[in-house]
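ERR on first pass: missing label on line 2. Operator R.T. fixed the label and resubmitted. Corrected input:
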Amino acid sequence: MSLDSNQQVFINEATELLQELEESLLELENTPDSSDLIARVFRAMHTIKGSGAMFGFDNIASLVHSIETAYDMVRNNIMDVTKPMLDYSLKACDIIREMLADPDIKADSPLAVEITDYFSRAANIQNQKLPDVQPERDSTARGELHTFRITFKPSLNIFMNGTNPALLLKELREMGSATIITHVSDVPPIDDIEPEKCYLSWDIILTTDKNENDIRDVFIFVEDDAVIDIKAVDEAFDDREKKLGEILLERGCLTESQLSEVLNEKKRLGEIMVEKGLVSAEAVDTALMEQAHVKSVQEKKAHASETASSIRVPSERLDSLVDLVGELVTVQARLSQIAAQRNDADMLKVAEEVERLVWELRDNTMSIRMLEIGSTFNRFKRLVRDLSIELGKEIELVTFGDETEIDKTVIEKLGDPLVHLIRNSIDHGIEKPEERIAAGKPAKGHITLQASHSGDSVLIEITDDGRGINRKAVLEKAKSKGLVAENAELSDREIYELLFASGFSTAATVSSVSGRGVGMDVVRRNIEALRGTIEINSSEGVGTTIVLKLPLTLAIIDGLLVTIGGQFFILPLSIVNECIEFNRSENKSGSGRKIIMVRNELVPYVPLRSFFNIKGEEPDIQQIVIISVDGRRVGFVVDSVVGDHQTVIKSLGKAFKDIDCISGASVLGDGSVALIIDIMKIYNDIG
Amino acid sequence: MSKTILSVDDSASIRQMVKFTLVKEGYNVVEACDGKDALAKTAGVKCDMVITDLNMPNMDGISLIKELRQKPEFRFVPIIMLTTESQDSKKQEGKSAGATGWIVKPFKPEQLVSVAKKVLG
Amino acid sequence: MNIETTVNEGKTVIDISGNLTVSYVVELHSRIREALRESDTLEIRIGKVDNADLTLLQLLCSAHRAAMSRDKRFDVTGNKNELLSMDCFAGFTREKGCVIDKYNNCALVKERSNV
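pass 2 clean. output:
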């Protein structure tokens, strides 16, 4: 046996302990009543045994075991120290020394056996053996998948001894696929709760290849003072789905006769049981979740046995599905409206149920249309490679967040703007290698494409480590083109804005790569058509970052429903800041400038009634909807604000494609049509 | 930030094994050789977990657990005791003193790691 | 834990951030209890969370129950979704509130993101 460093440390330690032990034993011969000495002897034996077993000296451990037991009894005044006991103890010290030096001396060597026998007799122990590894408390076999139902109700004081029950749940989750249901019904209201106590309990449905004992082991530290119930729920795991009633029956929440009584009625089982007070709503919920869990496990099983994991469908079918869902959302809105008007409790209940289902259906349908942006990113690798060779530059394209999902339609329309922005970075941004080295940068330039989710938007950042935007050059060019006044002083942001002005191109020469007249203005228009925004940040000599913020989907938005002259209009809720009352008489300032004071801030406003040439008399009190874009606030005056509205966007069709400032339409709950105002367009127009 | 574990044992070889095993798992380990030493070393030090032997000179493990649970900063810290098979009553005593759990000696390094993960995350 | 209470026209806002664990839950409890006595509207605003455990969620649930029974408004705002997404709360979040959740503002339900 080769010694590792732990064993070496143990040998040194044991040698010291033996030395001490001998001294103590000799002293004990003179003062056999000294509890201090007895404690010292016991401790030394204890350490030698414990550490010996840890580091592979099982021979020593089993020899010392009986001696330790004897001294423990002495320590507890069950037994007195005797002369032969001390003799054998001293002999034991000798043989332990030999064992440390030569691990081949077994615990069954004659002297060792003699010592063990003596102490066993003295302490009256029947050949106790050291347990090796903890015995298996087995019932179910490992390896196969089983589903267990685990009930865990910890003691009130579980936090007090440093236990974090969440970690136990985490451990269970790591064992397989788990559905965890937390019960909060025992949590007392704020005046009665003792916040350091635990009032929670859990039901866990776990499908795992581990057995019941493995699960029980998770709770080993708390099993004495917690209610823990583990049951296999799938003996044969038959392919039949369990009925709710069966689950409740099995769980002992319900008796057979109660069940059959309920079954004779023709309502949903769970509802009736709750109504009748047979079981709590929480118990039904839990059982339903168990049902769902088992079902999903079965589905997964079935799924795995199929060869194909996905199917291909033509995208038109998806589009028509989305259209149908859109109409369903509209109808559902109508249903909710009618239910609210009638104030009929039954109907409201149904309406709520429908609303929940429609939400779920909508989210599901939308998620089918989501694609990872990675495939689009990959197209650009080739583009960057080819262009950089053509221009004699060394550029590497790095992408992050390839797995970010975004609506298929958005991805399709994103290609062209991205190509343009990357071309710009290659052409204008990244310098030639010699230029970079002179500037103290690595010869190879980098362009980074990064996608990430941010709330209900997707952010796409295009970053290069090139020369950055020369603000002075931009400004001068704009002046020479007459885009700004000769003496204009502009902020950085305003200068970057100039890049989006139509027909602006800063490159001194027009190359085949960029600067072909299709400028940043087109890019911006494309992005805004997707209801997105574009922002430039740049630092001269360091690089440029362009951030595109895009909606996750184009089909449905949260809108703010307003009226002007009896007609409905919708503003995108995402950019709305606040709505305030607008009393026109008090704002008839002599200058005629359309500016209103909102909390000491001057906010320009657009009266939409006159903007759209809507006839009729303005009401005395109007509403002003204030939006905020890029930190700037603008108000839009409307007659009244109705409220928020799940807006399914319908296109207006070819005949109306040239209409400015209206981006689509939506059908309201009562069947009337609301036009969706293209706020960004108006905002940019009034600039 | 790596979590700090206090290892209390009068056996240098156990301490070394505990430290070696836990440091390899990315924990920070502070050592003490008995209860008194442990109390001295925890003064002003934030500990995320304690692993203590029960039989120690000066101050034993049970007293250490009781002392630590008196301190506000240790009220909810997981404390694991190292016991031997002959000490079933000790296990109960330790639990009522406020121990979170136990490891039975002899134990393998993997057992130590899994217990640390279980109570510390 | 950092706790900051602001009272404004019958509405109390309690900002919490940092270590939201059992070691500090007693202090938070007394603040919430007081706020629910004094105000009709209580908002708990979650700031940057370094650490959190079940006692926090349990307390929020308890506060919500008390608010419901006294017909008061109780909302959890700020980094709520981030908090509920923490690894240690797996299985704790709910799809919908419990039976008494009449305003649909159960503390344990993640806010729906608007698509």
